[in-house]
Every structure is written in C-alpha cells, then in structure tokens.
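In response to reviewer comment 3 from the previous cycle, which asked for concrete evidence that the modeling workflow produces usable outputs, we include below a single protein chain processed end to end. The sequence was submitted unchanged, and the resulting structure tokens are shown without manual editing.
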Amino acid sequence: MKVRLLRPALEDLAVAREFYDHQAAGIGGYFFDSMFAEIDSLALHAGIHRVLFGFHRLLALRCPYAVYYRVIADEVVVFRVLDCRRDPQWIRSALKEGGTSIKPGQS
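The workflow returned the following structure tokens.
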C-alpha cells in the first residue's frame, strides 16, 4: 500500500526533530529515523491500529508520539504526528484542523 504524508504531518515531524536536536546532539536525527521507520511500517500494517478521534493511531515504539492516519482507497494518508504527552483536547483540536476532509489524490 502507498503511504502519503500530508503537509501538517511533515511539519509536526520537523518541529519535533528541532526540539530533540536542542536536547542533545544526534537525538533529532534518531527521532526522525525512528518515526519514518514507524510510518513506513504502515505500508504493511495499515488499518490494524485502534481508532481514536476518527483516525487510526499508531503509537511509536521509541518516542512518545502517535501517527494519526486513515486508509483511503488503496492509500495510507498520514494526517498528523503528535506528541502523546499533550492534552487529549489539544490533540482532538489539532486533528480537526489537520484537513480531515481529504479525498484521494489531495495533499
């Protein structure tokens, strides 16, 4: 299955990488590589994750982050990559702002 990341998800990853880069040298790159490994796994395992706030939620193994996605036609669309330590209301709001009316072929 094809995996596509929307702009808000890419922006989430960039902000998180910058945060981790400020913590210690090399941590941002490790975060980025770890998260993309998780996202790449969706090509094989999409749709098996719990649905929360209307999205499938993949919990990352190495970082306190979640990948929120939907399976649309034969494509996995990643809407957001959010820090699980945030308030659930903030997460719900971020997901509503993240383009929940996406149709196949849109980005």
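The beta strands are 2-5, 51-52, 55-59, 65-72, 75-83. We consider this sufficient to address the reviewer's concern, and the full set will be provided in the supplementary archive.
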